Amino acid sequence: MPAKIQIKRIYEEPAESDGERVLVDRLWPRGIKKADAHVDLWPKELAPSNELRKWFHAHLDQYSDFVKKYQGELNSQSEQAKQLLKKTDQRRITLLTAVKDPDQSHVPVLKQFLEMQDSEDA
């Protein structure tokens, strides 16, 4: 059975329904103490590279170009994605991010990529 993957801002309260909580940002979120974050995994290699992250911040109006570039980075990280899915012993995964607008960020792209990886292994 494929994992149920959801997206949540790290500033929201943790919930039991979160399952495995995975921080998917390259940088630790401001104002959050590690002890209070309730983060189970932090696979930085699955976040956009520093170069791509900086490019996107300078080109917010080019989201579709960002998505293509990030998908290219993720394609070279498929093994890490599969390892992440294996490490999560629960079938519910919450991808945590500090971005203000998760819908226009790397997180939906990563979620779709993980779901594709998970369905290939099912």
Task: Write a structural description.
The chain has 5 helices and 3 strands. It has 122 residues and is of the alpha/beta class. The chain has one domain. The N and C termini lie close together (7 Å).
Topology, pairings included?
Layout: E1 4-9, E2 20-23, H1 34-37, H2 50-58, H3 63-75, H4 78-87, E3 92-97, H5 107-121
Parallel strand pairs: 1-3, 2-3
Helix pairs in contact: 4-5
* CA-based shape: globular
Unreliable residue runs: none
Average of the residue pLDDT scores: 90
Distance between the termini: 7 Å
Q: Count of helices? A: 5
Which sheet architecture does the biggest sheet show?
A: 3 strands, parallel
Tell me the domain tally: 1
Order of helices and strands: EEHHHHEH
Annotation, overall tally of beta strands:
3
Summarize the amount of helix as a percent range. 40-55%
What integer value in Å does the Rg equal?
14 Å
Query: Strand fraction band?
Result: 5-15%
- Structural class by secondary-structure content: alpha/beta
**Strands in their spatial order, largest beta sheet:** 1-3-2
Give a brief rundown of this model.
The protein has 122 residues and is of the alpha/beta class. The protein has helices spanning 34-37, 50-58, 63-75, 78-87, 107-121; strands spanning 4-9, 20-23, 92-97.
What labels describe this entry?
globular; alpha/beta; 5 helices; three-stranded parallel β-sheet; 122 residues; 3 strands; 42% helix
